[in-house]
Design brief:
three-stranded parallel β-sheet, alpha/beta
Length: 236
């Protein structure tokens, strides 16, 4: 079993084993973000779904109103004039077949890949490389589109793709631990509403099982689910 550092033990001692109100949980997350680098704020949400059934899968995007605090490197695979359009819209890398060849050779200098629908048959050739890294473009995630300027600007501004893993847990970053707690709450609320809006049709019984937040190197803090779902942001 991994040895727990003295730093983490001391931080864990600050966290009580109970659900916290959303704002209290986020203030505590900030207090426990003491690593020597800028930590992210993470949410780990257990849902009452079994993703091995197609009608219980969750894969979608959320636009975080306060942004992610991260620089997203966007690559675009397109054809002809669309390549220039992507570059002008702020893509970090843009190309056609030659970019697919580079990916095949191991070039992965990007965090997000957008492709135009006409290029998807060629992109499929590198599916084995992109798939395991969660980088395969998909219409559901908004990463297969002809509207490149809109897609690029949205993802650069704080739109994130997320999915439930095979155990039905969603792991997603929702900002930096250095953000004000109120900004983190706005982002977390947007995430909760997105998950509720995209509830899989096959989800039975209680949908939300638990939600924990944590800084990258900090302890997990349980959030009161109904407190978050009932929250109206005007009340923050």
């Amino acid at each position: 079993m991994a040895k727990v550092s003295k730093r983490l033990r001391e931080l864990q001692a600050k966290v009580e084993d109970r659900p916290y109100s959303p704002l209290d949980a986020l203030n505590l997350l900030k207090e426990t973000a003491t690593a020597k680098f800028p930590e992210s704020a993470e949410a780990h949400i257990r849902l009452g779904i079994d993703p091995k059934y197609t009608d219980q899968q969750l894969r979608t995007t959320v636009a975080l109103p306060k942004g992610t605090g991260q620089t997203v490197r966007v690559a675009v695979i397109a054809r002809g004039e669309k390549v220039n359009e992507a570059t002008q819209a702020g893509a970090d890398i843009a190309g056609s077949e030659e970019l697919i060849d580079e990916i095949q050779k191991g070039m992965m200098d990007f965090d997000l890949l957008i492709a135009t629908p006409d290029m998807m048959p060629q992109v499929a050739k590198v599916g084995r490389i992109l798939g395991p890294r969660g980088l395969m473009p998909s219409p559901k995630a908004g990463t297969v589109t002809f509207d490149l300027p809109q897609a690029i600007s949205e993802f650069k501004a704080g739109k994130l793709e997320f999915r439930a893993d095979r155990t039905g847990i969603v792991h997603v970053l929702f900002g930096k631990a250095s953000f004000p707690a109120e900004d983190l709450l706005v982002n977390l609320k947007a995430l909760q509403e997105t998950i509720d809006r995209n509830r899989p049709s096959g989800a039975k019984g209680r949908f939300w099982r638990s939600i924990y937040v944590a800084a990258t190197m900090g302890p997990s803090i349980q959030v009161d689910i109904s407190g978050l779902r009932d929250l109206k942001l005007g009340e923050v």
